């Protein structure tokens, strides 16, 4: 896989001195779904707006498919589809004309068959002659997606696509996003629903205070979440893990007074009984035992609160 | 040039016009008829002729200018302000288009609408008075240039405006008085000498004078001055728009 979007040291400060982006670096692989998680005001929308050309960066560079978004903005922007967070649509125009307009605006020749296909996939075909103002909120959001897809983007930004959307529609949208990804479109979605990131993303990025705090494969994160840690506190510090305990793959705590054992909660046998027997047999005296499980939520909260401090 | 984008913006804007075609068509017909009833029949019967032209015919170029200028401004200012207001401007800013293409689309559509209304007024006026156009090419040139230049001004107002009040402010407080005091309904030779001089600072005087010359061969100021004035005005609007595009003023944060 190759990098389709490359962001390096991107900064954005506003006139009042507020730094919305503090040197963001991010590489996005072609064909992946990256979920950007972050609290309100983290800089998610600013990041997207800057890449798409709605806001101008203070410094730093962004390339899309190798095209710089400033010097080669035509080539770069032609590759990008944007579904904004707010439902911004011309209320008096019909669905079909609004979507046709988007395609034309991006310089693409007429292709009615493609637009029909997009509208059908998004269950909008029956509403094609309706004025936008007659549609429900969920339908309007689909129109935004249809507009973004109308010019066949290689990279699609979905800014909080399911904010304020009911559960049923949210599931439908996830389905649409998965199908898009199968067709080879790279997708970057922002959300504050961790569940959404878990359901869809290949990689998860956490952004807070204008900085990317973490970008990791979702499977790695999930593995961390599925694992639990058992901490065995010792009365006397030790310098190395005794050889007799090697098979348990233990980690020695920083103070030398605890042993950390990672196990899979879902496994049939966790190996705790054997471990505790072996610890005792090795002549170590226990002072306390504790377990902890980290979730994506925990990781997220830790990262974000650490950033605020 | 992304001509497909220009055509798309143009068509999208024209669709707004066609949605309200009856209104777009009826209102100039009605207002022109009213002007003729009031100025032509009631007042005009006492004025008789101005510079050898019947008063009813004399006011036709001014009436057309009045509508074309106000329509050009309001169409173009609304055209670009509305996407800002409802938020759809995001799409324009993120599309692979440059500002020239955006202006061509929006101003082109606004000028077309203004031109359409100008033609409708001319046709309506024809029902009330006999009009012969001495210099048809010059008439078309003045008409088109006026439509385009005031649509450019409207575009600037639309970008500048932060709310609907501001959108109305410039047309209401500056443009309408300038048009009414610019000799739409009278020849400036009818004014006291002091006002004749003051009036020459009103740019609209030059437009109406030139436009009237194209119709009847009579003018308040030499026609060359009129052409120069409209060329300068168009150039000024283009320069301001060029600056807006370079800086992203009121468009990009």
UniProtKB/TrEMBL annotation, chain A:
Listed Pfam families: ABC_tran
Keyword ATP-binding: yes
Keywords assigned: ATP-binding, Nucleotide-binding, Transport
One MF annotation (Gene Ontology) recorded for this entry: ATP hydrolysis activity
Domain of life of the source: Bacteria
Chain ranges of the ABC transporter domain: 5-234
CDD domains assigned: ABC_DR_subfamily_A
InterPro entries membership: AAA+_ATPase, ABC_transporter-like_ATP-bd, ABC_transporter-like_CS, ABC_transporter_ATP-binding, P-loop_NTPase
SMART domains to which the protein is assigned, alphabetical: AAA
Keyword Nucleotide-binding recorded: yes
PANTHER family for the chain: ABC TRANSPORTER ATP-BINDING PROTEIN (PTHR42711:SF10)
Name of the protein in its database record: ABC-2 type transport system ATP-binding protein
Organism of origin: Tritonibacter scottomollicae (Epibacterium scottomollicae)
TrEMBL record, chain B:
Protein family per UniProt: Belongs to the ABC-2 integral membrane protein family.
NCBIfam families: PRK15066.1
Protein name: Transport permease protein
GO cellular component: ATP-binding cassette (ABC) transporter complex
Organism field: Tritonibacter scottomollicae (Epibacterium scottomollicae)
InterPro entries the UniProt entry points to: ABC-2_transport_permease, ABC2_TM, ABC2_TM_bact-type, ABC_2_transport
A Pfam cross-reference name: ABC2_membrane
TM region positions: 20-43, 55-82, 102-125, 137-161, 167-188, 200-218, 224-245
GO molecular function: ABC-type transporter activity
